[in-house]
Amino acid sequence: MNQLQSMRVFVKVADLGSFVGAAGALDLSTAVVTRHVADLEARLGTRLLNRTTRRLSLTESGRAYLERVRHILDDLEGVEQMVVARNHEPVGTLRIVAPVVFGLNSLAPVVQSYAARYPAVVPDVTLADRHVDLVEEGFDVGILAARHMRSASIVTRRLTTGYLTVCATPAYLALHGTPTRPEHLLKHPCLSRPAEQGGEERVFSGPDGEVRVRPVNAIAANNSEMLRQFALLGMGVAILPSYLIGRDLASGRLVRLLGDYRLPQVEITIAYPSRMHLPAKVRTFIDHLVEHYQQAGDHARDARIVTVANPVAGVLAERDEVAVPALPREVARRVPKAVRARAVAASQV
């Protein structure tokens, strides 16, 4: 008899604990199922199942064999599905879930370019700032912050890294002063997410090692875009993702602070329910995402990025992935001449 088929039959008998049940599930006769198991035992020279009139149970050899055979069959099925998937065009609805702010600020261009490449696929995008169960909620792909991933039943792949940036408006800094160390945040009203979403205590890495502070919130919100709006209104010092405020930093509407210190990174991850039976639409979208963000990272590394010493002069770090702008006229008037000279010199490097 076919050895692979005998292995499949044995796994089904072990799972169901019954020759009759396995026969019904596989659309075979009980005699054929019994023969498959008997042939395996004869080939191996050992008993795999203990049989009584009431029940079946695995022998010690049977348990060890079952574990290895199950992996072999899963791997074989995965290879077959990979070959089949590569011979099919991506089609159908592709359900995608992503964090709200990341989705609004970063996802549209990559979805647009994917849809142009694969017109038979219809992207269906959901934005959500919460833990997402991809399997239970029927999503094909998740683009999620690492802290939202808790399930062992999904496959994950790193996509890109998010950075948190301390910032404020030039007008706010002119009125209230510029914090230069994390401890200085204690003297400023801060704009941050609630504690359960990463707010409250902040851990900075800097020249003197780790610094922990608990800024006092002037106002809290569970959405970073709302915090950005508060920051632009000059309501305090905000801690926001770099991909959200890159344009604000480039235009001078916001100024990056604490340039010598860094907050923990947030890994942005691709997640999907299983490597098995991966549809072409999912496989191609994952490949497209990775390609898109790899190219974005290459462009950022190739860009000429200047760092200026004084935060009011528009300090940017390379991690913000934007170029240093010219100083707005109303800000420039408030910056000391020596600082302006250094900024001009740096911009000519």
UniProtKB/TrEMBL annotation:
This is HTH-type transcriptional regulator DmlR. Keywords: DNA-binding, Transcription, Transcription regulation. GO terms for molecular function: DNA-binding transcription factor activity; sequence-specific DNA binding. One of its GO terms (biological process) is DNA-templated transcription. PANTHER family: HTH-TYPE TRANSCRIPTIONAL REGULATOR, TRANSCRIPTIONAL REGULATORY PROTEIN. Belongs to the LysR transcriptional regulatory family. The gene is dmlR_33. It comes from Paraburkholderia fynbosensis. SUPFAM superfamilies: Periplasmic binding protein-like II (SSF53850), Winged helix' DNA-binding domain (SSF46785). It comes from the Bacteria. The keyword Secreted does not apply. PROSITE patterns: HTH_LYSR. It holds the Pfam family LysR_substrate. Residues 1-59 form the HTH lysR-type domain. Coiled coil: none annotated.
